[in-house]
Structure to design on (546 residues):
C-alpha cells in the first residue's frame, strides 16, 4: 500500500506571493481593524458518490493516457450579482463575500469565467478559519477569454472575497463556473493529515537524489499542470533559438480537453535538499514555496506524436527569473542511433518532482496510434499517471519527446519491469513546432538546442554542454580516450558517474590534449562522463561493454 502524508505548505500560511498572484497583505477581512456585522451567505455542495468515483480512478490510473484526477468537479453559476453579499467599507471601497462548503473535501479550488478585475481590486479564496488562502488575483490575471483557474485551498469550507476600491466600484465581474472538491490532493497543506504528498509509489526518485545531480537545468524546466481544475499532467518550459524567454511549454496532446485558459502551471514543486526520498521509502517532504502561472494558449497539437506546444499567458521572463526556471533545449534529429540513454523528469500522481533513468537506448515504435520513443524498462525509477506530458531528455539533456502512455509502475521500492512510450519531438517538429522553436527570424535552421537560463544567479547550476569533446571508442570495454573537439588542451577534471550519481572515476586533466580513461573494472552499462575545462562543463553518456 502506498503511504501518504499531507504537510503544510508555508505559502498558504505566510502569504508568500506566487508567480501570478500578488502579495497585498491578505484579504481585507483578515485585518485587525476590520469589523463586520454582516452575515456571509453560504451554499453547500450536494454529496457525490465517492465510491463510484474512486472505482473509476482505479481503472483510469492503470494507464497514463489521461490526466490524473484528484477532484470532483461541480458545475455552478455563482457570481457577484446572484450570490453572496456586498458590504461597504469606511474607506469608500466595498467587499463581496460568499461561503462555499463541500463537506469532506481535503482541498477546494475554483474555475472562473467572465473574469474582469479592475486596477486596484483584489480577489481571494481562503478557509473559514483564516489560516490559509490563495490570492490576491488582480488585474494582472485578466485574459481575453475571461478564464481563471485558482490554486488549491485546504479545507471544505471556503470564503470567496472580492474587494473593489471606490475608484472602480461596479467595474469588476466574475462567475464561479466550477467548484472542485479535492478527494485526493496534489497539495501539501496540513501536518498529519491524509493524502497526497508521497501519493506516488515508493520506487520513485526525488530530483534531489544523486540521480538528479547533473540534470539540474532540466529539472528546473519541469512543472506540474493542474488540468481543467481537477486533473494533473506534467510538462516543461522549452526554449526557442532566439533565447528570448518566450514561455513555450511542451506537454501531451492527451492532456488537452476543454480550455487551457484555466490551467495552472506549478513550478518548483519538489522536496528540498536533505529531505528527499531516493527509492528507499515512500516519504519525503515538500519545499516551502509554491510558484504558479495561470492560463495558456495552445499553439500546436496533434495525435501523430501525442504532442501539444503551448504558450503560458501573462508569464514573463522576469517571472521565470524569480523562481529560477530554465528553458529546456531539444533534439529534433529523431535519429535512433543518436540517443544512447534517456532521463525522465515528472510529477507522478501529482507528487513532488521525480526523476527516472533509462540506461539503454530507447527506440522508435508505434503505440496508441502515435510515433513514439519506446522504453522497455526503466533502470532507475518509473513514471505514473500524472507524469503524462513530461519530457524525455536524451543523454545530453535535450528534450526528444513527451510521455504518452505505458505500464511502468512501482512494486514496493522496485519498479515492475514494464514499459513506457513518449511521443517523438522529431515527428511533431515538422508539424508546426519548429515554426515556434526555430523560426527564421531567430537565425539559421538547427536541429539541436541546449537551452536557455535567463537568470545569471542560476546560470552556473549544473550547466550541461557548454563545450564539446570526443570519446573514442564509444561503446568500449572501459578503456577510451577523451579530447576536446577544437584541439585545445584539457585544463580541469574528468569524472565518471553511474546513473545513480555514484562516482566511479575521477582524474585531474592538466594541459593534456588527449586523456586516457580506464574504467574497465566497472560493470557493463551506461555511465555519465563529465569534463570540466577552463570553467566550462559538459556531460556525455558512455557505454561499457566488456
Amino acid at each position: 500500500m502506498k503511504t501518504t502524508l499531507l504537510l503544510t505548505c508555508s505559502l498558504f500560511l505566510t502569504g508568500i506571493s506566487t508567480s501570478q498572484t500578488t502579495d497585498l497583505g491578505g484579504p481585507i477581512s483578515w485585518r485587525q481593524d476590520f469589523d463586520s456585522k454582516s452575515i456571509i451567505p453560504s451554499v453547500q455542495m450536494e454529496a457525490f458518490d465517492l465510491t463510484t468515483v474512486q472505482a473509476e480512478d482505479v481503472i483510469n490510473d492503470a494507464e497514463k493516457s489521461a490526466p490524473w484526477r484528484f477532484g470532483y468537479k461541480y458545475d455552478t453559476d455563482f457570481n457577484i450579482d446572484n450570490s453572496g453579499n456586498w458590504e461597504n467599507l469606511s474607506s469608500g471601497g466595498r467587499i463581496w463575500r460568499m461561503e462555499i462548503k463541500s463537506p469532506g473535501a481535503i482541498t477546494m479550488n475554483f474555475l472562473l469565467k467572465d473574469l474582469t478585475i479592475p486596477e486596484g481590486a483584489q480577489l481571494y479564496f481562503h478557509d473559514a478559519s483564516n489560516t490559509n488562502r490563495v490570492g490576491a488575483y488582480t488585474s494582472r490575471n485578466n485574459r481575453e477569454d475571461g478564464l481563471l483557474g485558482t490554486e488549491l485551498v485546504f479545507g471544505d469550507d471556503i470564503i470567496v472575497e472580492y474587494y473593489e476600491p471606490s475608484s472602480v466600484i461596479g467595474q469588476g465581474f466574475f462567475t464561479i463556473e466550477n467548484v472542485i472538491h479535492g478527494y485526493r490532493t496534489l497539495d501539501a497543506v496540513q501536518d498529519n493529515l491524509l493524502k497526497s504528498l508521497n501519493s506516488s509509489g515508493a520506487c520513485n526518485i526525488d530530483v534531489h537524489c544523486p540521480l538528479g545531480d547533473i540534470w539540474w537545468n532540466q529539472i528546473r524546466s519541469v512543472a506540474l499542470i493542474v488540468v481543467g481544475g481537477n486533473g494533473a499532467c506534467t510538462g516543461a518550459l522549452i526554449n526557442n533559438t532566439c533565447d528570448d524567454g518566450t514561455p513555450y511549454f511542451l506537454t501531451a496532446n492527451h492532456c488537452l480537453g476543454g480550455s487551457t485558459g484555466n490551467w495552472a502551471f506549478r513550478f518548483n514543486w519538489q522536496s528540498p535538499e536533505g529531505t528527499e526520498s531516493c527509492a528507499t521509502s515512500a516519504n519525503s517532504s515538500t519545499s516551502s514555496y509554491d510558484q504558479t502561472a495561470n492560463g495558456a494558449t495552445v499553439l500546436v497539437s496533434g495525435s501523430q506524436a501525442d504532442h501539444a506546444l503551448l504558450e503560458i499567458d501573462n508569464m514573463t521572463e522576469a517571472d521565470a527569473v524569480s523562481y529560477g526556471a530554465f528553458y529546456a533545449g531539444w533534439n529534433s534529429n529523431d535519429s535512433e542511433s543518436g540517443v544512447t540513454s534517456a532521463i525522465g523528469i515528472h510529477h507522478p500522481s501529482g507528487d513532488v518532482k521525480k526523476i527516472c533513468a533509462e540506461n539503454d537506448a530507447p527506440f522508435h515504435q508505434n503505440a496508441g496510434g502515435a510515433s513514439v520513443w519506446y522504453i522497455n524498462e526503466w533502470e532507475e525509477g518509473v513514471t505514473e499517471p500524472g507524469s503524462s506530458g513530461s519530457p524525455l531528455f536524451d543523454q545530453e539533456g535535450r528534450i526528444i519527446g513527451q510521455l504518452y502512455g505505458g505500464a511502468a509502475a512501482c512494486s514496493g521500492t522496485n519498479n515492475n519491469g514494464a514499459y513506457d512510450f513518449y511521443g517523438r519531438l522529431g515527428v511533431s517538429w515538422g508539424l508546426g513546432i519548429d515554426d515556434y522553436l526555430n523560426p527564421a527570424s531567430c537565425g539559421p535552421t538547427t536541429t539541436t538546442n541546449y537551452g536557455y537560463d535567463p537568470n545569471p544567479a542560476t546560470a552556473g547550476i549544473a550547466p550541461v554542454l557548454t563545450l564539446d569533446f570526443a570519446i573514442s571508442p564509444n561503446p568500449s570495454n572501459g578503456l577510451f580516450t577523451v579530447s576536446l573537439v577544437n584541439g585545445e588542451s584539457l585544463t580541469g577534471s574528468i569524472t565518471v558517474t553511474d546513473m545513480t550519481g555514484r562516482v566511479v572515476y575521477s582524474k585531474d586533466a592538466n594541459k593534456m590534449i588527449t586523456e586516457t580513461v580506464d574504467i574497465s573494472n566497472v560493470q557493463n552499462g551506461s555511465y555519465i562522463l563529465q569534463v570540466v575545462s577552463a570553467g566550462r562543463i559538459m556531460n556525455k553518456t558512455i557505454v561499457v561493454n566488456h
User: Anything to note?
Assistant: The domain at 199-449 is CATH 2.40.10.10 (Thrombin, subunit H). The radius of gyration is 24 Å. Confidence is low (pLDDT under 50) at residues 1-19, 187-198, 280-289, 460-466. Helices lie at 10-14, 50-60, 216-221, 317-322, 425-428, 433-437.
